Hints:
Layout: H1 2-23, E1 46-53, H2 63-73, E2 77-83, H3 85-94, E3 100-104, E4 110-115, E5 119-126, E6 135-143, E7 146-153, H4 158-177, E8 183-188, H5 196-205, E9 207-209, E10 232-237, E11 240-247, E12 258-264
Parallel strand pairs: 1-2, 7-8
Antiparallel strand pairs: 1-12, 2-4, 3-4, 5-6, 6-7, 8-10, 9-10, 11-12
Helix pairs in contact: 4-5
Amino acid sequence: MKSYKFAAVTFALLLLSSRPVFSMYCPVVSSARNSSGELVLGLPQVRIRILQINPQADKNRNISGVIGYIRELQPDVLAVTELSDDWKRALEAEFGDYPYRVIASKYSSGLALFSKLPIVDQEIVYYPGDPVEHPQIRCHLKSSAGAIKCIVAHPTVPKKMVASRNAELLGMGEVAAKSGSPCVVLGDLNCSPWSYHFAHLLEVGKLKDSEQGFGPQPSWSTEMLIPFVPIDHFLVSHDIEVLNRVLGPNLGSDHLPVYVDLLVKSLVTKP
Length: 271
């Protein structure tokens, strides 16, 4: 009898601990679809496809494979983290059809944003307290639905500098909350969606996790038997609907690419 009680308690604890994972599969109610489930587009709405890739630039030499994958998807916006000088030169030379770009080159910890949409109000920020000096890109993307705030970041690895990472996550939330426009926060945030600091970022920034409705999508690490931690994120404001979110193939990095199809629903009159 005692063994049954122990099993029941263990099962109950497993259910409770698994609740945050299972809750990510709960679908989000779509206001952009009709009663038949068909997508209905109209002004002031704009559909934007964004791809983010962490190529592990200091080790990965598969530049041609990454370029081929980007060409296959043809995203409207491409974000790259861990950008080295070699990768920077190759991507700049290849993607002339992405005329709008912001590149923050810093050793192999650089960031880049390539866009078919005009980029305005761009700035590169080195977050105070980060000893590695990871850059952060902040800008607006101009669309037919107005300006969309975009923050691309790669906070420091938390192993020895967790306070710096947590401070940067909080800072991103504060910037997002003040943006006054639809907002997308993306990047290798070095933080799982079940972390307190991730939840705090969502709360402060008035953001939602793009995984909601799609379930956890572990993007790291491909060096394991299977990737098991989602640390490459897209967070969006509540006036942006996530139509699709998928992981890409292994391209030689320890991270998998992440692709989202977004519907920006609010008309913005000023950035």
